Amino acid sequence: MTTVLIADDQPMQRFGFRMLLESQDDLTVVGEAANGTEAVRLTDRHRPDVVLMDIRMPGLDGIEATRRIVAAGARTRVLIVTTFDLDAYAYDGLRAGASGFLVKDAQPEELLAGIRAVASGDAVVAPSLTRRLLDAYVHHLPSGSAPPAPEEDPRLAPLTEREREILTVVGQGWTNTEIAERLHLAESTVKTHVSRILAKTGARDRVQAVILAYDTHLVTPA
């Protein structure tokens, strides 16, 4: 059974989510929060598998709530649910540690599939869409002097040359199948490399790995 916490300031939106989730045999709602502060508190209390997190809420917003939930080190994963496709806030939510995002007008089966994917440790956002999002909002990356060379970033130090190569193409939006075909590897081998990359870099999922590739300048915007 996958446990879910709903965080949204609109009562009717929470009601709709609850009705949908409780129609599924493998999903159950453990609580509802009307703002980010409540979301953080209820996550600490209930330890849900997934938080459905709205962004624009009174007081503590969904981005800061996500950041605090992730920083607490719990196994809970956050799925951002935003009103606008490719909203700049969604980018900030991903950087705060969310495992992906969906728009509120997504089909019910998309939302359910997204919750299940996040609960199992996968990223909701497809790699190609993730890159489009990051390209659109790459100006949010910290500015400063000339970007450091990738090899100078300590987060990349534990990676082998092959793992660094695969992290680069993951950041470019390649799927596991594409990586296997283009690098002449078995898909199972690619999955093993990706798992090791996540473990060595501390990235929570594939979305965070893509962000890491941008942050370390292995990938630059097109």
TrEMBL record:
Q: Which organism is it from?
A: Streptomyces gulbargensis
Which PANTHER family does the UniProt entry name for this protein?
Answer: TRANSCRIPTIONAL REGULATORY PROTEIN NARL-RELATED (PTHR43214:SF24), TWO-COMPONENT RESPONSE REGULATOR (PTHR43214)
Keywords annotated in UniProt: DNA-binding, Phosphoprotein, Transcription, Transcription regulation
Q: Give a Pfam family name.
A: GerE
| Phosphoprotein in keyword set | yes
Instruction: Indicate the segments forming the HTH luxR-type domain, all copies.
Output: 152-217
Q: Which residues carry this modification: 4-aspartylphosphate?
A: D54
Tell me the protein's name: Response regulator transcription factor
Q: Where is the Response regulatory domain?
A: 3-119
